[in-house]
Amino acid sequence: MTPTDDLREEHRIIKQVILPVFEEICAEIESGRSVEQNNLEGFIVFVKEFIEKSHYIKEEIYFFPEMEKAGVLGAKELITSLKKEHEEERQYINEIDKVIFEKEENRELSAMVEYSKAYMRLLTLHIDKEENELFPMADAYLSQTVQKDLLKSFENVDTGIIGPERQEELKMWLEGKTYVKPE
């Protein structure tokens, strides 16, 4: 396994689990159906923990700096763009979070749908950019030693920041939830 394999696996979870849940929530809200508040809250906590406290840490603290150190032509500009996208993604998640935790009578679910759709578009393009531009550079130019060190750092993030039990709990929680109130 390489560092890019680890990040690709997290991208797979984002694309196959997180984004479809966002799509389902948006579709239900747009069709006028109610969405379970507890599940919305749990979902946004999951997104923040999985993406912000794990995935972004791996990229921003460990992976991006190693790519910049490697001095690969074009990598620095690409990483600057990716970091900017991370900030935009955080802004969308913060706005979604505000709507979800707003008092029900003040909640603007249409705003949450708008932020969610913008987030999904940006995140999809962002992942594509990483997987098709940055990761091939890393696979070609990072030494085996650097790659092994990155994997150790990624493992420390997985076990130290969130912890394996919490990661598994979050994944199981996500897979077992429904976001639509029963009729």
Mean pLDDT: 89
Number of strands: 0
User: What is the count of helical runs?
Assistant: 6
The rough form would be described as: globular
Report the radius of gyration as a whole number of Å.
18 Å
Beta-strand residue fraction: under 5%
Major pleated sheet: none
| Helical/strand content category | mainly alpha
Q: In oligomeric terms, what are we looking at?
A: single chain
Distance N to C terminus:
46 Å
Which percent bin holds the helix content?
A: over 70%
Q: Indicate the low-confidence ranges by residue numbers.
A: 178-183
Can you tell me about this structure?
- With 183 residues, this protein is mostly helical.
- 84% of the residues lie in helices and 0% in strands.
- The protein has six helices and no strands.
- It has helices spanning 3-30, 37-70, 75-100, 109-141, 144-162, 164-176.
- Helix 1 packs antiparallel against helix 4 (109-141) and helix 2 packs antiparallel against helix 5 (144-162).
- The radius of gyration is 18 Å and the shape is globular.
In summary, what is this structure?
The chain is built from six helices and no strands. It has helices at residues 3-30, 37-70, 75-100, 109-141, 144-162, 164-176.
Task: Give the tags.
single chain, 183 residues, mainly alpha, globular, disordered C terminus
